[in-house]
Amino acid sequence: MLNMMDVSSIQEIQKEEVVNCHFPSNEVLFDKDKINDRSAALKRGETLGNLEHLKIKIIFEDDKGLKKVITTIWAVGDTNIVLKQGVVIPIHRIHEIRIL
Fold it and tell me: Most Cβ neighbours (<10 Å): which of 13, 20, 31, 94?
């Protein structure tokens, strides 16, 4: 997991800007437990987003570095998550999910 100092320096972008990101094909997490935790957090975020309309902070990495976006997760698939307006982030590029 990222520490608080790391998170404060991460570039925040709007969900509409995610479409301009280029995502490499490699996984950003290397620990099996962290990958499982990420999957569980994504499913929880999807449920809370659809039922409670809660916003989620998603910390991900594109080819330029770490970014964060605050939005609602509409769907979680096998390889991608879907945000409003059909914006997609590959799961293998997500470092952390925080429910706000």
Answer: 94
